[in-house]
Hints:
The protein contains five helices and ten strands. It is an alpha+beta fold. The two termini are 34 Å apart. The chain is 22% helix and 24% strand. It has a six-stranded antiparallel sheet. The protein has a two-stranded antiparallel ribbon with strand order 3-5.
Amino acid sequence: MCAGQSVTTGFLEVLAKGLGASMAPEILPRNVLARTPEMIAWWSPTQRRIMFFRGESPETTKLNGNIYPHPALLFMICGHELFVRALAEDRRPNAETRLRYAPYWNTDGQGRVCLGSMRVPEEVSANSIAAWEAAYFASEFTHPSGAVRLTTHPRGFLGLWSALARRKHFPVRFLADSKQTLQEFVETARVD
């Protein structure tokens, strides 16, 4: 072995590029909350959206293809994985904002989405966030993911969505507390 050499700034720049840490400059829209080379997080205000369900029960079949109100949502892409959480208020969250579980099948307790039938956009950038949201809601919600209770509605998941088909606003009182802040959420999501 030879004697060690000091690390230069040039070497670190080449190393960072080789590890994929370089990013093209982006103009970030107002709804983007956090951005790193491997992650982007944004929020989406309350709105009505069509949803597709697939399941064995007749109750699930009745839900399919209807327009439902949705709470404000927090989306995050880490690597090529999608994560979703809900917000109790329809406003841009800050680092201390307490998050709620997203009340959707195919989403586990960490907010990780089982992509299933979702047509995942190739790009992970500020320009692609609308495509990620559209792909999420164009997919079929087919199954619960894990043991976490995603809603506090007395009739559970199917009861919540059955009651929402005729409503204009999502009742945030049925959002279950994830016991996590926005800061904790973006810090815990890592590319595996």
